[in-house]
Structures
1.
Amino acid sequence: MSLKDLRGRTAIVGVGTAGCGEAHGMGDLEILAQAAKAALDDAGLALKDVDGLCTANLNAAMWPLNVVEYLGIRPKFVEGTNVGGAAFVAHQLPAMLALDAGVCDVVLVCYGSTQRTSPFGRKERGAARILLDPEPFQTPYQPFNPPSSYALIAARHMHQYGTTRRHLAEVAVAARKWAQLNPEAFSREPLDIETVLGARMISDPFTAYDCCLVTDGAAAYVMTRADRARDLKKKPVHILANATAVWHRSVSSMQDLTVTPSKESGERAFAAAGLGPKDIDMLQTYDAFSINTLLALEDLGFCKKGEGGSFVEDGAIAPGGGFPVNTNGGGLSCVHPNMYGAFITIEAVRQLRGECGERQIEGAKTAVVNGNGGNSASSQSTSVLATADVL
Amino acid sequence: MQANSPLGPEAHYQAQLNEGRFLIQRCNDCARHVFYPRVVCPYCGCAELLWVEAEGAGTVYSTTTVRRKAEAGGDYDVSLIDLDEGVRMMSRVEGPAPAEVKIGMRVRARVIDHQGAGLVVFIAEDEK
């Protein structure tokens, strides 16, 4: 058996979000449960149908236990691997294997964080993380992470390929233009390139607009086997392939700062899907920082290495441009509750179902979802999703 | 130098830095230099890593200026340095203003005292 044998055999049949932006007075589990309920309703399923669970959280090492207890479920399959924000894309392969093997029938992938409005501050959480999971060869130099690590990556990319701050700003402005078409997006006021370039610097070459939002938000989606998916409420979106690559943890151990593990995960996912970049109608990629979008476009083969900057010029990935990227507004303008991987999956599903209103990509049949995790593009997970007629 | 220090590699590295000595490891099998200190070579899996004195010369591979309010100490540099031995480490370049630290700049290691412990920082090669 190979990855190719799993092509299209599972599908995403329900999606839901909750508490996006600010969820005052709510906790992580509470909005997670709301999103889970919404995703199951969307599929025409109930909590009692759930017999597989994939979930992770930055604050709790044994988070699946919390979720099982809260939802009152008894899953036969539990997957709690945390490779950072890419986790909720990376959960797909183990879920595909479990579903295909008949270990379980309905897998719920879910996440929730109220980091923005939580009374337990980000500062305390950051300090606790350094104590529990130290980086002794980086911490004494006080990188302001994650921004500083991705800033080092961007600086090297600029040095090596002539990428400019204006190219990075194009990514932020494109994301904002999509967000303006998405009622669920958090930041929707107009934004132009000059404003991005002139904003407060965080860690050179990044201004505040090159960095993702800090919001609350929960997201959940439901997976089942393709045969069962046909009988459910909504048009299934099939998973043609999912592949994950993990290369390092810290930016100082990243071999080439201009190449991410997407190079590997993308090659594996495209090979198993039997498709290539030219067959893809949209990219939903994890834009923790503006540089992430350029790296994904290059490493997944939508353009050559080093040409990400020129690829995005003149609004090429914005609404009305040549190639739609991050149509919900991305982590930069829609939502970013610490770990964002489930949201890019959900946006791809909504697009492939034709549910996206003003931002709908007409006739879209295929999407690539590319998750990013860790402080320095440490993990990447790539999925190829498609409507039933692509099978 | 002793391969089998009574301390683990991480503690041994720090203990030596505290004495002002900047050591890195070299694999006794594949002969590649290794940083940060480990018990197993990440290139070939060999468990025999020998301590060698770092030559101290390096090149800035990438750099960022972390912005900080003046009252908290002001902006500072965070850089990735490629040592001539072929290993990379995070550090900072001291001397030039943070914005003047450039990729490709030649730098030299210096062990300083940081909150009572040895820490490797770098100075521009042309500065003494």
2.
Amino acid sequence: MKVEYINPFYKATLDVFRIMLNLDVQRGQLRAVEELAPVSEANVVIGVTGDLRGSLLYSFPKEMALEMVTTMAGMPMSKLDAFVCSALGEVANIISGNAVTMLASSSLACQISPPQVFIGTQGSLSMATEKAIVVPLITPIGTFEVSVSLSSPQG
Amino acid sequence: MWKEHYRIGSELIDSQHHELFDRVASFIRAVQEEGAWEERLDQVQATLEFMKEYVVIHFNDEEALQREIGYPGLEKHAAVHAAFREEIRQFAQRVEEEGFDEEKVQEFAARVMTWLIMHVGREDQRIGEFIRSQGGQQ
């Protein structure tokens, strides 16, 4: 798992949060973990295939997730229902898609799978031997984390 | 939902965008309101019907503007429009066959909302930049 794979995800988040939410994003301290595990209530998993393979996990605190969708919809959201979860899945999908496009400019052609949203902090996602790098992303409405576990099949 | 900074400098397109954002907002309201789903269905159905027709009109008008001003990204932009038009058509067909399931409609509303914000907030702004670079308003 190379740290170079991380930057596109930060840049894409910066861009998408500015356009969709008019919010600035700062990057917190990176850390390596053994497995992808949700730290917050609202989670989105996206698979990656192609020149890089692995998984991405976006983990949003509940209050932040509700605030994000409130801002986008222009009306208050109070629960993590199908609408809110789907909107979060889309945001993660857009960020991942943009990040993958940036990776393509480094000659890494990847595809992403549709977002899977799940609620709760139980359990972890089984992975191959690769470690994951967790990127905390700090915004004025809260901090969420993106865990990136990608590896090149060519090594 | 609509923001003044979404304006691209074409009166027709800006007013259509404004209308689209307002309609999507009322769609979300209908989808998210408390109360029996059956009672909100009329509004949901009406908005979906409107959207289906209005995106066709709006995308056509916006592509006509792009042709008129010689916008270099026309082809790519039109392909994005076509893909989204198809997505709406498929959803409309699906509810026709399977009925309006609340959760499916909620998911679709979220998809339309995020698509509209990203598309108008990013891709369409490039048309605005092009108009300004050509010396102003349409």
